[in-house]
Amino acid sequence: MTAPPVDPPPVESIDISQSVQGTYDIIVDSTNAGWVEDLKPAIEFKTKEIAPKPLLGQVMGHRLLGVGAKIECKAMQFTAATLGLAFPWGLGRIMPVKVGCDLYQYAKAVVLHPRWMGTDKSLDINFRKMVSIGPVAIASDGTADSAIPLTLVAYPDRDKLPDLDLGWIGATDPAIVVAPT
Question: Which of 14-18, 31-35, 58-62 has the lowest mean pLDDT?
Answer without folding.
Answer: 14-18
